[in-house]
Amino acid sequence: MAGLGEDWTPRELRHSFVSILSAHDVPVEDISDLVGHVSTHVTETIYRHEIRPALTKGAQAMDKILKRQSRSA
After folding, report:
1. Which terminal Cβ of the chain has fewer Cβ within 10 Å, N or C?
2. CA-based R_g, the chain, Å
3. What secondary structure letter does DSSP report for 3?
């Protein structure tokens, strides 16, 4: 299956697709149409996950960790 491994499922890609489009300010109505939902409710409540804050928090934490390590080296 495209070299993605055995643990990968199409459903995971669908969630990622919706979340990435959302993170890039694609209107939820357009995303809902693209994934075949009748309304935006399912798109918003089930498929769309905000990934930007989690990525930002993780990046900020890593910056602090790496800066501390580079000062002590």
Report:
1. C
2. 17
3. T
